[in-house]
Design goal:
The protein starts with a strand and ends with a helix. By secondary structure, it is of the alpha/beta class. It is built from eight helices and eight strands; from the N terminus they run βαβαβαβαββαβαβαα. The longest helix has 16 residues. The structure holds D-xylitol-5-phosphate and zinc ion. Zinc ion binds next to strand 2.
Length: about 220
């Protein structure tokens, strides 16, 4: 299956948000990646369910929410109601990841689990059966435009091995510092979905940039 591209709105210009979403949608974006940050789990603050609910009216794209918040169990219903199709939370933010994965699925969304650079893939062994997606963070979460941590490539390979053996339906998403320099290599290592923030929205023409990266894949 060809790799999917998920532009991350974190790098978009919110004063022109409808136009920016249209640009990537018309260029064939697969998912729209929405980074939710609370200023506690990560040192940055973005948006909550109200803004996502309003964005929902602008686009039929798959809404791929990446929750970088403490106590994610308190908010998954709100994000589902706002129109998120996929909800991914961080393993580091809850002691009851399996319960939360199950809850997200009960709500009718795809359930994903994200791991920070410090968290080994082996921490997912006992919950991988309950995941629709594993998100390998290739930077420390919080900001766009950071440098890709090279070790992440090996983590994608490890995630691929784990998933192939145990839950082949589960997708692998990579987020942080992804662009033309490493996209092909990440897909070869086993990534199914590439998140790109500054690569796409930092370009003069986000649609053209998306098409260009797609061609490289
Ligand atoms: C960072 C976010 C990313 C961010 C990626 O914490 O999770 O989704 O938008 O931005 P780039 O692609 O610029 O690293
Ligand atoms: Zn993200």
């Amino acid at each position: 299956m060809p790799a999917l591209i998920a532009p991350s709105l974190l790098s978009a210009d919110f004063a022109r948000i409808a136009e920016q979403i249209d640009a990537v949608q018309n260029a064939g974006a697969d998912w729209l990646h929405l980074d939710v940050m609370d200023g506690r789990f990560v040192p940055n603050i973005t948006w909550g369910p109200k803004i996502i609910g309003d964005l929902r009216k602008l686009s039929p794209l798959v809404f791929d929410a990446h929750l970088m918040i403490v106590e994610p169990e308190r908010y998954v219903e709100d994000f589902r109601r706002a129109g998120c199709d996929r909800i991914t939370f961080h393993l580091e933010t809850t002691a009851h990841a399996q319960r939360l994965l199950t809850r997200i699925r009960e709500l009718g969304a795809k359930a994903g689990i994200a791991i920070c650079p410090q968290t080994p893939v082996s921490m997912l062994e006992d919950i991988i059966d309950d995941c629709d997606l594993v998100l390998v963070m290739s930077v420390n979460p919080g900001f766009s435009g950071q440098t890709f941590i090279e070790r992440s490539l090996e983590k994608v390979r490890q995630a691929r091995d784990l998933i192939d053996g145990r839950n082949p339906e589960c997708a692998i998403e990579v987020d942080g510092g992804v662009g033309e320099r490493n996209a092909r290599e990440l897909v070869n290592a086993g990534a199914d979905v590439l998140v790109m923030g500054s690569t796409i929205f930092g370009a003069n023409d986000p649609g053209a940039e998306l098409r260009r990266i797609r061609a490289l894949l």
